[in-house]
Amino acid sequence: MELIDQHTKKIMEGCKDRARAAGLCFEDETLEYIVTNRDLLELTPKVMIPTLYDYWVHDVEVLKEKGRYELYPGNPYETVINTRPAISFYNDNNPDWLNVMIFYHVLAHIDFFQNNHFFRHTWDDDFAGQALSDKQLIAKLRSEKGRWVDYVIEFTRGIDNLVGYHGDLSRLNRPVQKDGSKRLDYYFDVFLQSVRNVKIHEYMKEIERFNKCIAIYGEFGEKMFFSDIVKKYPEFEAFFDRHLKENNNGNGDLIQFLIKNSDVLKKDGNRWMTSVMHVVRKTSLFFQPQIRTKIMNEGWASYWHETLFLKDDRINGHEVDFARVNAGVTALPRVGLNPYALGMRLFQYIEDMCNKGKYDWEFRKIEDADIRKKYDKNTGKGKDLIFKVRNDFSDFMFINTFVDQDFVSGNKLFVAGRRLNSAKMVWEYYVKSRKAKDYRQMLIDSLYHPPHIEVDEEKCTDHALYLVHHFEEKPLVKDFIANTMMGIEYLWGGPVHLETSEVVSVPEARNNGMTSAFSPPQHKEIKEQKLEWERVLYTMENRKISKKVL
């Protein structure tokens, strides 16, 4: 692994100038390295952070990927990581024209890292330097404690899969607020919706009243707004004070709860374990934004590498080569999901819709299909909107807001179903739905969604830890429950209970139609029926697991 030569660096600097002229915004300092495919195979398990702590799973992944590479050799083009400065890796046999295209792609990634608000907590620190410090710490502990360090890493990483970090990310991704702003957030987000359960028209009236107070009284508008609220809801201040205390004194996620409350970890000989747990948790927090913005991030980079490279005179003579490579990256599959292709087309769609004024209320009132198709106000505001989306949205918000019927129909998208052809004994795919609602739900279901598991402190009796899985129609993976609970038991130092939901019955295959000697067997389809769920309680005690139905 070595830095790119001066010739290639000059190409990169030229791409920076053109990218900035197009509106992208990023820090000037970047590092670019030339690597071989073998180097990439070894860096991939560490999420391309060369300084990340060593762990046996990384070695297993390297061996697996090397075996796969022997069978199916590939040529990854680039990888970029969100560090200070941003570091990117390039294949050692890329021609100049391909590097131009790849540099645009990388610069768009860097622009996304440094401007999307979900990455806010990563903006001020050099994670590569932090990771090196963590690596040295774990290496030192490993020399003293031996394999127990790896046990703690493994147990904590298992717990990490149960942690969503939504509370932490909500706090980290917002600028520091004054108490008044916290009060405002609580009033609209919690008090009106959860405590008072007001109707939508009442909620909208409160928003209008707040906007009027700001318009009339300026910086004193919020104070005037709350003076009326106290008269209308005398209990509001008491609820708000309790909310602040709960947030300030809460035990956080499960890893934090164990660090604060485990008697085992408080023992003098075991305090080193909390350092390892902090490293695992901090590393996971750093990568949470990438997990939550995969479609947007890759779509943004693909949008800009195509937009900028097509205008670059260095494409001359390589149009066909570019078309082939670009199609391989951004082609929409008929079955499955390509985040590059979906994200890019969604950004293009948003820009086009905004340029034509189709996000205005006037357009939304039109019902005639021909008028809707020809509608074009030529606003020229499309670029501004996609930059705003780049700043403020995550994948869930991106999909839920902009995947509509026009987008689905225009790109000929559909939800695919699968059925068994019992005559040929093969699985067949078919078009199950072309509705935007179904396609949008399919995309949302594919997004990262960790289980919501909390500690029920009222049920933590006799030194037992009681965990409650707030069920969201997605069961826990049974294969991992025993090992994860064993790790929690070790770190907690007592029995562990886990309350969750499991399915009672599953749909059975049935023949769709009659079969006779004169007709071939019909397709076997899955009978659609609502699943029945039951609450169960897993208990891990003395490294033995048991289960009972509640």
Structure in words:
- The chain has 550 residues and is of the alpha+beta class.
- It folds into five domains: 147 residues, no CATH class; 76 residues, no CATH class; 78 residues, no CATH class; 87 residues, no CATH class; 99 residues, no CATH class.
- The chain is built from 24 helices and 13 strands.
- The strands form four sheets. The protein has a five-stranded mixed β-sheet, with helices on one face. The protein has a four-stranded mixed β-sheet with strand order 1-2-4-3. It has a two-stranded antiparallel sheet with strand order 5-6.
- Strand 3 and strand 4 form a beta hairpin.
- About 4% of the residues have low confidence.
**How many DSSP helices?**
24
Largest sheet, described in full?
A: 5 strands, mixed
> Any low-confidence stretches, pLDDT <50, length ≥5?
175-179, 509-527
Structural class: alpha+beta
Query: Whole-number radius of gyration?
Result: 27 Å
The global form is: globular
Helix proportion of residues, in percent? Answer: 40-55%
Strand order of the largest sheet: 7-8-9-12-13
Oligomer: single chain
Average pLDDT figure? 83
> Strand content of the residues, in percent?
5-15%
How far apart are the termini?
57 Å
What's the domain count? 5
DSSP E strands, number: 13
